[in-house]
From TrEMBL:
Disordered as annotated region, ranges: 408-435
Key words of the record: Aminopeptidase, Hydrolase, Metal-binding, Protease
Name of protein: Xaa-Pro aminopeptidase
UniProt key word Protease: yes
Gene Ontology, cellular component aspect: cytoplasm
PANTHER family on file: XAA-PRO AMINOPEPTIDASE 1
UniProt source species: Maritalea mobilis
Domain Peptidase M24: 325-537
Gene Ontology MF terms: metal ion binding; metalloaminopeptidase activity
Domain Peptidase M24 C-terminal: 545-605
Length: 605
């Protein structure tokens, strides 16, 4: 992966949002609507692969609305428009878009349908791009709109029609991982997958998620920032090798030969024709992630459609011993980098001269010292003072502010190392602390510890455990508007399904799942607090029907922000043991001054 040429770093700070561009672009899109007899058009933050990170040419939501969040949908009608976002972006969205044009709508399961029904009339048509929506999405939306007499219509993408300088698709090289790192050969993975297909009587399985294809074939790439995947689609037959459809520039004799026992690479332009050959066959799609465009092609030639979850999503979430070893090694490398960074921050922050961008740059430099860093795993959230209260804040040249002594500093970051993926958040003080800061920090910490210590029955889900992290905040009438944890890939996406910890995640937690544990608290206009470790599901020693979490992240938690009086003896014991492990794990890998800082930062309380 290549860093930015100007800065030689992966993260840059250019302003990607410009509300002044919203009006002319929306007006141009409305001209397209009228020319095509369409009354509204849906613009999701999605590409055909449903990725959290998308290529520049698929940033349609940002192009039309100037909103740069990783999730959301714009609805552009001929007269009115809405921007639907979740709780992570309720502060960010109004600042980035033109609110004279876009009404900001809080996400709910029916938000898009409700807005369309409230603002359109019977007989109106709503256009959508079949590459950017799933069958489940369209079927759910269509059922609601039909009752109001509003018709959903698949059309060519109307944003593309007005986007004159739209970037071309990425064509970066594919590379392979060896079996020692992946823990299983691609041939063995394919054999196991094909057995599952036979049990389902599926003649073909269509893979549309790049993480699934990359995991299956033991390949990686650099088509998108922060997630080391090569984009493409795959058709897996019940017998024989996979057909993988990619940009033709990626296809060369060397990579074809390396993958010849499991797949043949073909130009992306041949994908649709390949699906037309599935006449009378049973074709397996994940209707929650596959583009409805592809499903409709298979239907049109008479194929029987099997709608079920992508089986690789569950398989790759169960990390095997080799993947676990790699992930642990990555967390250790990251802990060394974090201690170097935190000791520097501790020395420099009280001087009152550090900016948010300097903090991001220093952290990346510390990670690069390992010589194992391929990329950052997401853009670092570097929120000083009030900016820390913006859950998914991204610092730019325009928003960059100086960290003042006494303010809290929230840094949420991660790396893509050669052997695994990391994600960690630490909130630090930069001077004297207030009683409220210490109270809120300790309530968040208590929730993080509760989740770290829990033993739970096999079959439990993230929805069962989410309240453990929130209980202490809830008891004070406080909460946070994001999930408590998400799955994490092994040298793949830092946000990985299906497991997670939130009130709405009902996927069963299984041994080998790696998740984040990140409760938080946000006081708008003042500060944000989040503490995040990665944890892994492992067997419980209490009972063979129970599981527990093993902590993977070992980086000090700021003791100066803890109100010890609010903690129980068991919580204090956990924290002291945790900090001793932090010291034992990495002290010998540090320079003398950093080692001394770590000793103080991990002292028992």
């Amino acid at each position: 992966m290549s860093a930015n040429a100007k800065t030689n770093r992966f993260q840059t700070f250019e302003e990607r949002t410009n509300p002044d561009l919203v009006a002319p672009r929306v007006n141009a899109l409305r001209d397209q609507l009228k020319a095509n007899n369409i009354d509204a058009f849906l613009v999701p933050r999605a590409d055909a692969h449903r990725g959290e990170n998308v290529p520049a040419g698929d940033e349609r939501l940002a192009y039309i609305s100037s909103f740069t969040g990783s999730a959301g949908t714009a609805i552009v009608g001929t007269e009115k428009a809405a921007l639907v976002v979740d709780g992570r972006y309720t502060l960010q969205a109004p600042k980035q878009t033109d609110t004279n044009i876009f009404e900001i709508v809080d996400l709910s399961p029916t938000a898009t349908a409700d807005w369309l029904i409230a603002n359109l009339k019977k007989g109106n048509k709503v256009g959508y791009d079949g590459w950017l929506h799933t069958p489940k999405e369209i079927e759910t939306l269509d059922a609601k709109l039909a009752k109001a007499g509003i018709e959903l219509v698949e059309v060519s993408n109307m944003v593309d029609a007005i986007w004159e300088d739209r970037p071309a698709p990425p064509t970066n090289d594919i590379y392979t991982l060896d079996d020692a790192q992946t823990g299983k050969s691609a041939a063995d993975k394919l054999t196991e997958l094909q057995k599952q297909m036979a049990e389902k009587n599926a003649d073909y399985l269509v893979l549309t998620l790049p993480e699934s294809t990359n995991w299956l074939l033991n390949i990686r790439g650099s088509d998108i920032s922060n997630t080391p995947v090569s984009l493409g689609f795959a058709i897996v037959p019940q017998q024989g090798v996979t057909r993988c459809f990619v940009q033709p520039e990626k296809i060369n004799p060397v990579i074809q030969a390396e993958l010849s026992d499991v797949t043949v690479l073909e130009p992306i332009e041949e994908l649709e024709e390949a699906l037309t050959s599935t006449t009378t066959d049973a074709v397996w799609f994940d209707d929650a992630t596959a583009p409805i465009k592809l499903v409709n092609i298979a239907k049109s030639v008479g194929a029987t459609i099997i709608n079920d979850k992508d089986p690789i999503v569950i398989a790759k979430a169960r990390k095997n011993p080799a993947e676990v070893e790699g992930m642990k090694a990555a967390q250790t490398s990251d802990a060394v980098a974090m201690v170097r960074f935190l000791s520097w921050l501790d020395a420099e922050a009280p001087k009152g001269k550090l900016t948010e961008t300097e903090i991001v740059e220093k952290l990346e430099d510390c990670r690069r010292q390992s010589n194992e860093l391929l990329d950052i795993s997401f853009e670092t959230i570097s929120g000083s003072g009030p900016n820390g209260a913006i859950v998914h804040y991204r610092v730019t040249e325009n928003t960059n502010r100086t960290l003042n002594p006494g303010e809290l500093m929230l840094v949420d970051s991660g790396g893509q190392y050669r052997n695994g993926t990391t994600d960690i958040t630490r909130t630090m003080t930069t001077g004297d602390t207030t009683p409220d800061q210490r109270k809120h920090f300790t309530l968040v910490l208590k929730g993080m510890i509760a989740l770290s210590r829990v033993h739970f029955h096999k079959g439990a889900t993230g929805a069962h455990l989410d309240v453990l992290a929130r209980q202490f905040l809830w008891n004070e009438g406080l909460n946070y508007a994001h999930g408590t944890g998400h799955g994490v890939g092994a040298l793949l996406g830092v946000h990985e399904g299906p497991c997670g910890i939130s009130g709405i995640n009902h996927n069963v937690l299984e041994e080998g799942n790696i998740l984040s544990n990140e409760p938080g608290f946000y006081l708008e206009g003042e500060y944000g607090i989040r503490i995040e470790n990665l944890i892994m599901v492992v067997p419980s020693e209490k009972n063979d029907k129970f599981l527990k979490f093993e902590t993977l992240t070992y980086t000090p938690i700021d003791l100066r922000l803890i109100d010890k009086d609010l903690m129980t003896p068991e919580e204090i014991e956990w924290l002291n043991d945790y900090h001793q492990q932090c010291y034992d794990l990495i002290a010998d890998r540090l320079e003398d001054d950093k080692k001394e800082w770590l000793k103080q930062a991990t002292r028992a309380i």
